[in-house]
Design brief:
The complex is a heterodimer of chains A (468) and B (493). With 468 residues, chain A is of the alpha/beta class. Chain A has helices at residues 16-23, 26-34, 59-69, 133-141, 154-157, 162-168, 192-198, 222-245, 255-261, 266-273, 306-311, 322-331, 335-340, 344-347, 350-364, 369-378, 389-393, 396-400, 444-451, 456-464, and strands spanning 50-54, 73-78, 96-97, 109-110, 121-124, 145-148, 173-178, 249-254, 290-294, 314-318, 382-385, 405-409, 413-417, 425-426. In chain A, the strands form four sheets. In chain A, strands 5-2-1-6-7-8 form a six-stranded parallel sheet. In chain A, helix 3 (59-69) crosses helix 8 (222-245) and helix 7 (192-198) crosses helix 8. With 493 residues, chain B is an alpha/beta fold. Chain B has three domains: 11-63 and 421-450, no CATH class; 72-296 and 463-489, Crotonobetainyl-coa:carnitine coa-transferase, domain 1 (Rossmann fold); 324-413, formyl-coa transferase, domain 3. In chain B, the strands form four sheets. Chain B has a six-stranded parallel sheet. Chain B has a three-stranded antiparallel sheet with strand order 9-10-11, with helices on one face. In chain B, helix 11 crosses helix 12. Classes of the chains: A alpha/beta (468), B alpha/beta (493). Chains A and B meet through helix 1, helix 2, helix 7, helix 8 and strand 8 of A and helix 2, helix 3, helix 5, helix 8 and helix 9 of B.
């Protein structure tokens, strides 16, 4: 008898709706499938994972924040009454959200804390107290893993390093994140900026000396954040492996090393040829034209804010392929330049780059940023303005994609956020932000009583003794 | 000069490292285990230090299993670093990664700084040259060629996808869809497929990725320019003149691409976990350089939302933290950090020993006494002026030694040769050599996720000749050697 093949078993669209979906324009399809703004009606990828966050500053908190955005339940443990030092950090000491803690209503948490701790539950614990050891172990027994950032050996001294914890929970995934790890500089402390300075990244960022420049720090705590995400990656890989074997692991992650990882050709170039890569400012060492130029006029000469008035003068121009470069030379009325540097190999040479960018800036000297962008774009060349934070906020593109949005935070009301939503769109398990953060110890009852079962009177006693 | 004779105490010494007579790396041997044991002993951590060396060290990593064994990844994209970095991370963790290039190769193979062909590496067998950026990011990956613009090529591509768990794609928006091999079509064929698109700004929306009239792609630093990063990086015009360093500044590397790549890898593994643990379904992921970097710009956007402050450039200083900067010293720049009272005063005690004015001025200025007040601009200027005055007479290593005695997080700003020769970095090691069949011995950056008890991530090989794995990979979808050769003749492979 001939076997009947059901239409549902064949590849391809199976209903009229699915057929229609195949026909709509691609952009509409993307918008429909990602559906920004509707994240909360979809499942979360890491639901059911529980993580302990014994973290401070940005680097290690961010490694756990990624998990929390993906749906893991994260318990952040802070010092009683003080909290993470990052709570006392704010740009020019300006911006705080209140309160820090229920006993200190006139002290707030600084905006420095933003984005590194969304969706976490906040408890406090003084690890030094032997009385709290059992509480800590109870949490370990019901969690999947922990991230900590104390100086090497500290958690070991307190009998809560991986050596001890793997005995009570063999599935436990333990992460230490810090500056250096085992070795001669084991006890060296570290910050984002040390990673940038020490690992070579600063030596290749900024204007070269012949332009008058110095090594420049990547703005923000770029290396902290970037390294934190690499930890998240390692955690997820370890979780995948644990599904097969049932065994956890310990990850020792040095933030200073993470910056060395992205030096690209810098390391092999030194290794083979002894050549030490230097800074090359706003141009590209491997492509030309592919750099940022200064225009003569600002886009908002009458604006009050000097950031708008003085700084909106830079354009990123890219025309490295022959046809693009030819068109660019025509637009700026300098066909000689094209004749001189017809091949990419000719124009990417250092001296050629100096001459070409100088010619571009001469041409742009009597124009505003938007004029330069418009003229080049009209000619079919890639050119875009360098945006400031106000322009990012006003970007229609980012708003439509749901990348930046106002959050009605349960504690602080309206706050503008981008973290989580801008890390990538996922069609079935999108990331989300439930809250920006909560006050120090806000979830003590929830965790110690409702999760671990300690009586309320005990918790009150700990609280009064400042153990929590 | 002999190897081992060079002792690096200042920049002048490190210039000797360029001498071909004393290389290859390392010029001086790393510290011995015995010396390092003494360092552990200083804090009574001998036992813990020993445990770390036994369980976490680089040397043991090749003895251990790989976390993502059995996961297959296809990568298809050109030019950019995003898909390359994302797939490197997966490959270092043990996934099988197949890198698909057009028969002419990824244009990044042919990029080299300032067009210098002498700094490309030559394939020992074919004599073809390949750029170092490409080689360094081609980690544990197989290379095959395929022309997806031909009908036959697209059919082959679909068969390849049937064998994969994950596809990472980095072509201009809608290009793969228009060929009938985008997520929309493939997900109907393979509902378990996890498909990730990576780009600069997006495959949809008013400012989606563009190509020029002549087909040139949008590459980094377009991503950095879109989210405020470039505007906020660099010295302000009142610290250095505009056009002479006082301008918005791009990262020296394609930084936004790297950030997009790592977030793509995170999202991919989360989707894989959800597929295996919960649903059995794949999904569509989109990560862009502009947005992934925007995610990590601290509080800048939230600050704008609070009081319309537009973040300005502050050079190598930080408006949130004092001390937290690098400042010029005798032979370069020295980074010093310490914000809390405990650390800040310790920095003061260290400086005071050589330069008593530092201590005196603190006593006279109440604004320098409280942690938050030290972040005001005038407090930053005062602190750093005094610190730089102290640093003026010191080499970086001298300053480092003095500060480490006080347990301060401090370190010299190192050039790449000094990075490679730094004792701690060599000891672990953070740069190491590998032998490539094609290109000989290559110095590379070790994955920072290498130091693990059970499943360390590692580099097994670097670089790959274009199409070297054609026969092996195509055999797995039923194309024999003869057929592959025929398809090659027709320009399909």
């Amino acid at each position: 008898m001939e076997e009947k093949i059901r239409i549902e078993d064949l590849p391809g669209p199976k209903s009229k709706e699915e057929l229609d979906e195949m026909k709509i324009p691609y952009e509409e399809f993307c918008k429909k499938i990602f559906d920004p703004g509707n994240e909360f009606s979809k499942p979360q990828a890491l639901k059911g994972i529980r993580w302990m966050s014994c973290t401070m500053y940005i680097f290690t908190p961010h490694s756990v924040a990624n998990l929390a955005e993906l749906g893991a339940e994260v318990v952040k443990i802070e010092m009683p009454r003080m909290g993470d030092p990052m709570r006392h950090t704010s740009p020019f000491n300006e911006v705080y959200l209140y309160p820090l803690h229920d006993t200190r209503p006139t002290v707030g948490t600084g905006l420095g804390y933003t984005n590194a701790n969304p969706n976490k539950y906040f408890i406090t614990m003084d690890y030094h107290r032997p009385e709290m050891k059992e509480v800590f172990y109870r949490l370990v027994k019901i969690s999947d893993g922990l991230t900590e950032c104390y100086r090497p050996g500290t958690f070991d001294r307190w009998k809560q390093s991986y050596r001890y914890l793997q005995e009570i929970n063999p599935r436990f995934i333990y992460v230490w994140g810090g500056g250096f790890g085992y070795g001669p500089k084991i006890f060296g402390g570290s910050y984002d900026i040390l990673g940038q300075a020490h690992a070579g990244l600063a030596s290749i960022t900024g204007m070269p000396e012949f332009m008058g420049g110095y090594p420049v720090k990547h703005t923000n705590w770029a290396m902290d954040w970037y390294s934190g995400t690499l930890i998240t990656f390692a955690i997820l890989a370890a979780l995948y492996w644990r599904r097969k074997t049932g065994l956890g692991t310990m990850i020792e992650f040095s933030q200073v090393q993470a910056a060395t990882r992205i030096l690209g050709y810098g390391v092999p170039l030194y290794g083979r040829f002894g050549i030490v890569r230097q800074r090359w400012g706003n141009w590209d060492t491997q492509l030309c034209v592919h750099g940022i130029i200064l225009c003569g006029k600002s886009d908002y000469p009458d604006a009050d804010n000097p950031q708008d008035r003085e700084e909106t003068r830079y354009v990123m121009v890219s025309a490295f392929q022959d046809a693009d470069f030819k068109a660019l030379c025509e637009v700026i009325g300098n066909k000689e330049l094209y004749k001189k540097y017809k091949t990419h190999k000719d124009r990417v040479e250092a001296e050629a780059q100096v001459e070409i960018y100088a010619a571009l800036e001469r041409w742009a000297a009597d124009k505003s940023r938007s004029e330069v962008v418009r003229i080049l774009q009209d000619a079919g060349i890639l050119a875009e303005p360098v945006k400031n934070m106000r322009e990012v906020y006003e970007s229609e593109h980012l708003r439509q994609r749901g990348t930046i949005r106002w959050l009605d935070d349960p504690t602080f009301g309206d706050v503008l956020v981008q973290g989580g939503y801008s890390t990538g769109l996922m069609s079935k398990t999108p990331r989300r932000v439930n809250w920006l953060w909560r006050p120090v110890g806000a979830d003590n009852i929830k965790i110690y009583h409702e999760m671990l079962g300690y009586p309320l009177s005990t918790i009150k006693e700990w609280y009064e003794k400042a153990w929590i | 000069m002999e190897k081992g004779e060079v002792e690096i105490t200042s920049r002048i010494d490190s210039l000797k490292l360029i001498d071909p007579m004393i290389r290859p790396w390392p010029v001086t041997p790393p510290p011995s285990r015995e010396e390092v044991k003494k360092i552990y002993a200083k804090r009574n951590a001998e036992e813990f230090g020993q445990w770390c060396e036994d369980n976490l060290s680089f040397e043991t990593s090749f003895d251990k299993p790989e976390a993502l064994q059995g996961v297959t990844v296809l990568v298809i994209g050109l030019w950019r670093m995003g898909s390359k970095f994302a797939s490197s991370l997966l490959a270092e963790a043990g996934a099988e990664v197949i890198y698909i290039e057009p028969p002419t190769g990824d244009p990044m193979r042919y990029l080299t700084p300032f067009g210098r062909e002498e700094y490309m590496l030559e394939d020992k067998k074919t004599g073809e040259k390949c750029g170092l950026d490409f080689i360094h990011e081609m980690r544990n990956k197989y290379s095959i060629t395929l022309n997806i613009e031909s009908e036959e090529g697209r059919e082959i591509y679909k068969k390849l996808v049937s064998q994969a768990d994950i596809v990472i794609e980095e072509y201009p928006p809608g290009y793969m869809d228009s060929l009938g091999i985008g997520y929309r079509q493939l997900s109907k064929l393979y509902p378990r497929l996890i498909y990730c698109w990576i780009g600069e700004r997006g495959q949809w929306g008013p400012d989606k990725d563009k190509v020029s009239k002549w087909g040139q792609w949008m590459l980094e630093p377009f991503g950095q320019c879109y989210n405020g990063f470039v505007n906020n990086t660099g010295f302000p015009a009142d610290q250095l003149p505009r056009g002479r360093g006082g301008d918005p500044t791009r990262s020296g590397v394609w930084f936004a691409d790297y950030v997009a790549g790592e977030q793509a890898a995170v999202n991919i593994l989360a989707a894989l976990y959800w597929r295996e643990e919960v649903s059995g379904e794949g999904q569509f992921i989109e990560v862009t350089a502009a947005e992934a970097l925007l995610d990590i710009l601290d509080m800048d956007l939230t600050w704008y939302g609070f009081n319309q402050s537009i973040k300005a450039r502050t050079g190598s200083w930080d408006p949130n933290l004092n001390q937290y900067a690098w400042n010029p010293c005798k032979d370069g720049y020295m980074m010093i950090g310490g914000q809390s009272d405990r650390l800040w005063y310790r920095i003061g005690m260290c400086i005071e020993k050589d330069y008593p004015q530092f201590g005196r001025l603190i006593c006279e200025d109440p604004k320098l006494k409280a942690v938050a007040a030290r972040n005001a601009l005038e407090a930053l200027i005062k602190t750093y002026t005094l610190t730089s005055r102290w640093l003026r007479d010191l080499n970086r290593l001298e300053a480092e030694q003095k500060l480490l005695e006080y347990d301060i997080a401090a370190g010299p700003l190192l050039f790449i040769d000094e990075v490679c020769e730094f004792p701690h970095f060599k000891y672990r090691p953070w740069v190491y050599t590998t032998e490539s069949e094609e290109y000989g011995t290559i110095l590379y950056s070790v994955p920072p996720t290498n130091f693990q008890v059970r499943t360390p991530h590692r580099v097994k090989w670097l670089g790959r000749r274009l199409g070297r794995d054609n026969y092996e990979v195509y055999q797995k979808i039923g194309l024999g050697q003869t057929e592959v050769d025929e398809l090659k003749g027709k320009g399909v492979i």
